[in-house]
Each structure stands twice: as C-alpha cells, then as structure tokens.
Amino acid sequence: MNKKRFAALFLSFIMILSALAPAVYASEETKKLEIELEVSDLREDLTTAVGSMEGFEPQNEDEEELVAKFNEAGDFLDGEISLAEDQGMKRVGASPKLTPVGNTIVDVTTIPARIQLLIRISRAIRFGSTELANKVVAAHTKLTEYILVGILHILNPFADEGRIMDYIQGFDALEQELLSYPDLSPNDIATIYKKASLARKLSEARKIRNQANRTGKQFLARALDAKIKEGSAVWWKIQAICREVDEAIEAIDKAIERITGPKIRVEKITFEEGDKGAIPVDQKTTVTPVTLPFEAPIKDVTVYSENAYIARVSGGAIIPQKPGNVKIVAISKDTGVKAYFDLYILEPGEYIDGIPMMKSCGYNQVINKPDGGHIGPVGYETDEVNAIEFTLERANFKVGEEFSLENRVMVFPKTAVDKSVTFKSEDESIATVDETGKITGIKEGKTKIVVTATNGVHKEFPVVIEKAEDVSVYKITSVKLSEKRRAGIFDIEIEATKDGEGYTGPVSLVVTSGNRTKNERVYLKNGYGKVRYTGFDFGTWRKEFNGSVTLEDQIELFSKTY
C-alpha cells in the first residue's frame, strides 16, 4: 500500500470517527457548536467574494498591486477548494484539524474564514478608493498595510481560524480610525488617491461619450468631450490641487447628466424582515436587503456578519456559531451605504418578547433542548459597554450642512456584544440628529450630541454650527448668433446675471463646426459680452454650428445653420 493511499484511508477513518464520536476530540462546548459544512458549498462563497471586486478599475500602481494580490488570494482559495472537492472532504463543525491528501492547506476548516477575510479585503480596497479618497496619504498607507497583511493570512497555510477571525474583526475599528485622519484641504496638492477618483470619473465619462456618439447624441457628446479634455488636463497636471480635481469631477458629472439624466444612486438599504429578528442556534436563516430608491440601477449588496464568532454568512445563508447577539451588515456596491440587522441567536425553544422569530432556511446543527422557555434579552456574552469615545474631538460645519457621526463612534470594550447606541441633540434649535447619527445644522451656535449605549453609558460630542456662506445664483439669460454670416464673419452675444444683476466675469464658450472646435474664455461686463469669428476661424464653406456656454453650474447649448 503506497503512502498516498494509506493517508487517504487514514483521513477517511479520522472523518468517520469525528462524526460518530466528537467527544474524543472536542470539549463539551465545542460539540455544541458543531456545524456541518460541505467543502464544495464554499465554491459559491468564493464566487461571491471574488465578484465583490467586479467593476473596480485600478487607477494607479498602488491599486493595481492590491487588485493583483487580491486575485492571487482568490486563485489560491479556488485551487484549495478544487483539491478538497476532488478528495470528497467535508468539515464537521469544530472537529479536529484534517490533513488532506495532496497539496491543500493544512486545515480545511479555515477555508470559510479565509473567504470571509477576502470579502473584507475587497471592502477595504473599495473603502480606500471612496471614503478615504480625500484623506491624507498616511490613512492610505495604514489601510494598504492591513490589506497586504490580510492577504498573507489567506495565503499562509499555518494561519489558524482564530487568528484569521481576529484579523477580520479588526477592520471595523480600523475603519473608524482612518475616518478620523485629516481631510485634504482644497488648496492641498492632490494625492494619487485623490486623482484616482478623477481618473475613475474620466473613465466613466468616456464610456458615456462613446455611447452618446453611437446613439445620435453627438452634440451632447461634444460638450462632454470638452469637459473630459479639461479633466484630463487636471489629471496630468503634476501640481494640481484638490479644488481643481473636485471642480473637474463636478463639471464632468453635470455634462454626463445632460446625456443620461440625473444619476440615481443607492441612498439607503432596508431589510424585508425589518431591523431585528431571532433564530435558534440549530437553524440557518437569511435576510433580504432592499436598496432605495428603487430606481437606483446598481442594486448589488454584500452581506456579512460583524462578528463571525457568533454567526457567519455563507452561501447567502446566515449560519449561527453560538448563542448571542450579532449585527448582520449589508453594504451597497454602488455607494458604500450600510444597513444593520440585529440578529439574536437563541438556544432551541427559547424566545424573546418583542423580537420576531426568523424563517429557517435549513438545519444547522444538532442541539437537543428538551423544554422550551421564555428568556429576557440574550446575554450569553457578559461583557457590557463601559465607555464610548469618538475618533475626533468635535465637528465644525455650516448651517444647512450635514455631518455623519455614525462611523466616528467607538464603543468599548471591543468584546461587548451589544454595541448599539442612540443619538440625541441637547439643542435641536441649533442642530438635529437622526437615529443613524446624521447631524444637520439648523442655526449658528454650539450644542452637544449625546450618544448613549443600551446600558446607559453615554458620551457627549461637541458640535459647532457656523453661519452659512451666501451662495450666488448664476443664470445665462441669452446666447444669440448673428442672423447672417457675411464674408465668413458672425458674432455670438452672451448675456448673464449673478444674483439678478448683470454678471461681470468670465464664461466658457465652445463652438464646433464639423471637425473644427474653438474653446474661448469670454469676459462679460455688466452682464454682456460678444465674440466675433471670421473665415480664418471657420472656413466660409462651413454652414452648421453648435456649441455651449458655461457659467459656474449653468450650461446653455446653441446651434445655428447659415
């Protein structure tokens, strides 16, 4: 009998023994937590994990490296699952480590945790390109370190499940920490991460421009192309400042909307099951996220458990690990908006007043409890909240503006099971706050937002509301082209107002005829300006003209046939 065949028989013996007599290998507590999970079922989980990066286009060398490492980790797990499937192996709960025949990782039971970490790394990469885009370089450096070390955990055959789970749990605290890092100011030199957001917008705009050209919207496509060229110039500018990047993105967005209409994006996520529910530990369940508004085209969400020690999300199902309370998180791939579902995991037969029981989607583990019963709020984990802190000292913003406190609250200890908090404003005439922690400035002044845990521990967060800046209203009131073109000469007259008075200052003028385009910066005085074109600018044989005038957020299109 060769060594490989002997190892296979030995493995089969171990698996049968672990299924029939788990007490040999596990403590009473471990036996209670046994979960049957076919290795082949992990294929769907891995597909979800890898798919969570779908549509992400790296825009600099740092992002390219992270995506390449992410894909390497995905390929590694794919190979391990394939080998495990070929050998017909399965994991039975917290049974002893299995040593597969061949080249699979030492402990097959760690594959689910490695997939969960891969999903969290995907979230981290997107987090860096969105919420952290306007943060200083130090925030990105620390996030990159988390991502690369996490990938090493996935690839390390000796990493145990506990170590991987602890690393996953560390991301939420890291998120809050990084959000407290300083923002780039409008006059700071744009970082490569800031410019990456412009590069992504340019990529989106080029696709829409090309589509517009194919569908007979060439005129609007030209206006968008002009903004693409202006944005590209900012991207290539070595010393471009953040204000220039933001203005370029805003201008491109407005040009895109003239073609596609207002872009509808996910603003909120709810669950069909409500915001809380309970399930026996021996049953699996599911939640159904709903993205709002319904018209938002990108409805993809990723669902994961905030504490994978209590429950995991696998194959679309929530799989309890032990009794306790846990938040199930749904995050939009479109905007990063999150929603939380409070899940109470109970012993079989138990229930909680006011908490609806969830529908089971399958049997989870064998736990016999002879009698049902009624209990108070679940308290299997005894750690309670003893302190609340914030990632920044205070918030200063203007009347009418909003500030989210939700991701800037830190609840201690980290092992506390119920970390939910409520928000209340001490003076709602100055600032209001909703249940999610979104603060809105009402009038100039100072107040405090009181953040309170369910056990009464609270902390005050200072808020300073400043006077809002006066916002001017611009309007292009008239764009007139000469009725006739004489000897190749014609004029374009522009009239505009600012706050109802004649505007004095520059406007952007784009004139196109055939394959020739002229870009001008026209200065208006007391609301009026004129530009003259001759046969040297546009040949006398050209008859069709179109273009646009842009003033701040106003765009006026025109066309003329001579």
From TrEMBL:
Residues 1-26 form the signal peptide. Pfam families: Big_2, CAMP_factor. Keywords: Coiled coil, Signal. Residues 265-342, 384-463 form the BIG2 domain. Residues 195-258 form a coiled coil. It comes from the Bacteria. This is cAMP factor family pore-forming toxin. The lineage of its organism: Bacteria, Bacillati, Bacillota, Tissierellia, Tissierellales.
